[in-house]
Amino acid sequence: MTSRANGRRPSSSRCRWACSTIFCRGGTTRSHRRRDDPCVMAVLNDKIQGARSITKTNTTSIETFSSPNDGPIGYVDTAGGIRFMAQAAGLKRATYQLPAGEQLPRVEIDYSHANMDAVPIEDAISHGAKGIVLAGVGDGNTSKPALDALEAAAKKGILIVRSTRVRSGFVTRNVEVDDDKNGFVVSEDLNPQKARVLAQLLIASGVKAPAELQRAFTATW
Questions:
Q1: Which helix (H) or strand (E) holds 214?
Q2: Whole-angstrom Cα distance, residue 221 to residue 110?
Q3: How many angstroms separate the CA atoms of 154 and 156, rounded?
Q4: What φ, ψ does residue 103 adopt, rounded to 5°?
Q5: Other Cβ atoms within 10 Å of 166 Cβ, number
């Protein structure tokens, strides 16, 4: 395994799990990035992966990180050059500020399973959860008792995000679940872990309107 950024190869004495993270804007290198428009990338095995899509796919394999939904966004070639794939013109990424001196709001992930009841949802609420991310089956679905409990939670002002426990694919609005009626948000391509982080930032930033919440999950796709 090799891991390089800006043409530098790690020495043989470095750990084989070495990973480089670079900050950039569009197709520019770290040294040319603009402070007002950063993005985060990970460089592993000469492939450059975007932060939104990258995920770990194997417990112990060296080549574990990939982007199942959109693939690498660039490559590091054998001569040390960095090559970025074309990006969509006019792409704008929303940014949110971390709350100063405060802990992020409590957001729980509930994993869907056969015969799931309302207990995990009610337990999360009883422990002060401000948001719940459903790691649903397939297109972010779950049992009727769990859906009913999530709908009741949404009516209390708790942010409900439907994600999926499936490795790749998008969770779509109003297909298997009536999100408009239930007051749910869908995570699009974000897995439950990443959806939880965004939900925490949105709650901390005071974003409450359903349309604005959904827009935040869709904005960078």
A1: helix 210-218
A2: 25
A3: 5
A4: -75, 145
A5: 15
CA distance 197 to 194: 5
Task: Give the H/E segment covering residue 161.
Answer: strand 159-164
Which residue spans within 72-112 are E strands per DSSP?
74-76, 82-84, 107-111
pLDDT tens, position by position, for the chain (221 residues)? 333 344 443 333 332 333 455 444 444 333 333 334 447 888 888 888 888 888 888 888 878 888 888 888 888 876 667 877 765 555 566 677 787 777 899 999 999 999 999 999 999 999 999 999 999 999 999 999 999 999 999 999 999 999 999 988 889 999 999 999 999 999 998 999 999 999 999 999 999 998 999 999 987 55
What's the sign of the alpha-carbon dihedral 132, 135, 139, 145? negative
Yes or no: say if 159 and 213 are a contact pair by the CB < 8 Å rule: yes
